[in-house]
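To assess whether ligand presence alters the predicted conformation, the chain was also submitted together with heme C. Input:
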Amino acid sequence: MSERFTKGMARNIYYGGGAFFMLLFIGLTVDTVTALPKRENRDKLTAEVAQGKALWEKNNCIGCHTLLGEGAYFAPELGNVYTRRGMGDEQAFKAFFNAWMKAMPSGAEGRRQMPQFNLSEQELDHLADFLIWTSRINTNNWPPNVEG
Ligand code: HEC
């Protein structure tokens, strides 16, 4: 190999590097596209879950909370609130959720406050169904901390 860095060498690095990373990019794209269907939430998307999502949007819960990391950082992540508060028991979670929503705002000194939304029993039930459904999306164990 000559001591000088020639134009030819620079060109080879340019084309070789370009080809290498293009192949890497294609490989990772194929990997993602084949992995995603295996991680879909296979739970039935019921009318209740859809209505819960509509209520979630209408009341702008995301203005304070994150859902799977997306949203505002004022209040706790809710993508895993079912795991955190229900621990796998739908009825226990619904009881917690119903009581929580009715008890807001807590008025507790030094704690961030959540408004009272005055939702009906049915609306609360749909919102809980939506949060349970969301918690079952395979997020590759994200967030790593159940409190997150
Ligand atoms: C104005 C901001 C705000 C909005 C809007 C808001 N929240 Fe909250 N939420 C909070 C705060 C702050 C807390 C934490 C309060 C605390 O820990 O004392 C909280 C906590 C919660 C919790 C308990 C979380 C846990 O880990 O125990 C649930 C469930 C919840 N919110 C649901 C909702 C739903 C559903 C909506 C939409 C209908 C909503 N929130 C809209 C501010 C908000």
